[in-house]
Specification:
This protein is of the alpha+beta class. It has 17 helices and 19 strands. The longest helix has 20 residues.
C-alpha cells in the first residue's frame, strides 16, 4: 500500500466513516484503515443511537439504516438484591423517533458502504502502529512495514487510544477515568419482547439500572430491546472491582440472575458476549485534538457522555467526523495542513452541540462518583416503598416512613438534600 492519499483515517467507527464519507463525496482521495478483520468487528456499543445528526446528514437513513426498534419507553431502575423501584417515561408522539436501538456492527457496516459508494477505500485488518512525523508535521501513517503518505490524518481509533498514547499525543488516562463495559445479547422472540415490555413490533425500550447491577460499585446496568434480542450489560469504573474485592464476571452473573432480569430473560438464550472500554473523563483539552497534519475525533477525543440518565456516543462521533471533514476540505482548498489551519476544527466544535453538551455536563463525572448513588439510595428507595406499601394495621405516613428508613441507612436529611442539590447542579 504505497499510494499517497489526500486523507488517511485511522479507525472505521462512526466518526471515521462519517469523515471518510464526506471527504470522498467532495472529491478527495481517502483511505480508512481498520484493524478489525471485518468492518464493525471492533465496534461495541450498548445499542442505542440518537437520530438528530442522522436527520441532518443522512436524511434517508430511516429507509436505509439497520434500525431495530424506535425507543418508545425510557426506564430507570433502582435495584437491591431482591427488589427494584422503576421509573418509566412513555410518550405516544414524535418522541418515538428521537432515538432507536441498533446493533452497532450492522450500523457501522451500513455507514461503511455509504463511504465506499462515494469513493473512500476501506482497508480491514490493518493496524496502524505509528504516524509518519517529519519536523513535527504528521505526513501519513505506518502500518507494519508499510508507510502510507497522506496530507491529512484523522485519528478515530476509539476509546482504546493506543496510537495517541504511544506517541504521547494525549495525557495519560487514569483508571478512574475509564470504565469497563460487558455486554450480553440474548435471543428472544419478538412477540415475547412485545408482551413483556408492552410495546409493538417497531417500538422498544431503553433502560438504565442503578445499584445491584454494579454490586454497589461506581457504574450501572443497561438494557435495550432489539427486534428479536435483548441487550443486557454492566459498566463499572475500572478501579472499582479491585477496591471492592469483586470480580467483573461475578457482577455480570449476579445481575443476570436478579429476579427482575431473570423474568425478562425467561426462555431466551445468549448469542453474544463482548467487553469494551468506556472513557468517562470528558473531552480532551483542545490542544490535544489538533496538530500539524492531524485531527482527533469521536471517542478517541473523549466525545462520550454519561449523565446518569442519558448515555451517548454515536451522535457525538458522527458530528465530530463531519466537522473534521469540513475542516480538512477547507484546508485542502487553501493547500494548508498546519495546526493553525486545522484549528478551525476546534472553532467549529465550540459552536456545535458536542462542546456545548460536554461543557454543560462537565460536572457529571464527579457527581456520579458519589458512592451513595449506588449503595444508599437504591436501598433507601426500595426500603421506603416496601415499608410504605406494607399493610398490617399500623399507619404509615410518607414523611415518617421516609425518616425511619433514612435513619436506618444512617442518612441525614441534610445529606440527602445536599446530594439532591449536587444532582441538580451536575445533571
Amino acid at each position: 500500500m504505497s499510494e499517497k492519499f489526500d486523507v488517511a483515517i485511522v479507525g472505521a467507527g462512526p466518526s471515521g466513516l462519517t469523515a471518510g464519507y464526506f471527504l470522498a463525496k467532495n472529491g478527495l482521495d481517502v483511505v480508512i484503515l481498520e484493524k478489525g478483520s471485518v468492518l464493525g468487528s471492533k465496534n461495541i456499543y450498548g445499542g442505542r443511537i440518537y437520530s438528530h445528526v442522522l436527520n441532518r446528514y443522512f436524511p434517508e437513513f430511516k429507509k436505509e439504516a439497520p434500525i431495530e426498534r424506535w425507543v418508545r419507553k425510557e426506564q430507570l431502575y433502582f435495584m437491591t438484591k431482591d427488589s427494584a423501584v422503576k421509573l418509566e417515561f412513555f410518550a405516544d408522539d414524535g418522541f418515538l423517533e428521537e432515538s432507536f436501538t441498533a446493533h452497532l456492527t450492522k450500523f457501522v457496516q451500513w455507514l461503511g458502504k455509504k463511504a465506499e459508494d462515494t469513493g473512500a477505500l476501506i482497508a480491514n485488518g490493518v493496524r496502524v502502529d505509528s504516524l509518519i512525523i517529519d519536523n513535527g508535521n504528521v505526513k501519513g501513517v505506518i502500518a507494519g512495514e508499510d508507510k502510507l503518505e497522506a496530507d491529512y490524518v484523522i485519528i478515530a481509533e476509539g476509546a482504546n487510544t493506543v496510537l495517541l498514547d504511544n506517541l504521547n499525543l494525549k495525557p495519560i488516562t487514569r483508571p478512574e477515568e475509564v470504565a469497563l463495559g460487558v455486554k450480553e445479547v440474548f435471543r428472544l422472540d419478538s412477540e415475547k419482547i412485545n408482551e413483556r415490555f408492552g410495546v409493538s413490533d417497531d417500538e422498544g425500550v431503553a433502560a438504565l439500572l442503578v445499584g445491584y447491577p454494579s454490586f454497589g460499585a461506581i457504574g450501572g446496568g443497561f438494557l435495550y430491546t432489539m427486534k428479536n434480542e435483548i441487550t443486557l450489560g454492566v459498566v463499572v469504573r475500572l478501579d472499582e472491582p479491585a477496591r471492592e474485592g469483586i470480580k467483573m464476571y461475578d457482577i455480570v452473573e449476579n445481575f443476570r440472575m436478579h429476579p427482575v432480569i431473570r423474568r425478562i430473560l425467561k426462555d431466551s438464550y445468549m448469542i453474544e458476549y463482548s467487553a469494551h472500554f468506556v472513557v468517562e473523563r470528558g473531552k480532551l483539552p483542545g490542544k490535544y485534538l489538533v496538530g500539524n497534519g492531524y485531527l482527533v475525533v469521536g471517542a478517541a477525543a473523549g466525545f462520550e457522555l454519561n449523565t446518569g440518565l442519558v448515555v451517548r456516543g454515536v451522535d457525538f462521533a458522527i458530528e465530530s467526523g463531519k466537522i473534521a471533514a469540513d475542516t480538512i476540505l477547507k484546508a485542502h482548498e487553501e493547500g494548508d495542513n498546519s495546526k493553525i489551519a486545522l484549528s478551525k476544527y476546534l472553532d467549529a466544535l465550540k459552536e456545535s452541540f458536542v462542546f456545548r453538551e460536554l461543557e454543560a455536563f462537565k460536572k457529571a463525572p464527579k457527581f456520579l462518583s458519589n458512592k451513595r448513588i449506588y449503595n444508599d439510595y437504591p436501598e433507601l428507595l426500595n426500603s421506603f416503598f416496601r415499608e410504605l406499601l406494607t399493610v398490617d394495621g399500623n399507619p404509615r405516613r410518607i414523611y415518617s416512613t421516609l425518616r425511619k428508613v433514612m435513619k436506618k441507612r444512617k442518612l441525614s436529611l441534610f445529606r440527602v438534600m445536599m446530594d439532591g442539590l449536587g444532582a441538580v447542579r451536575s445533571i
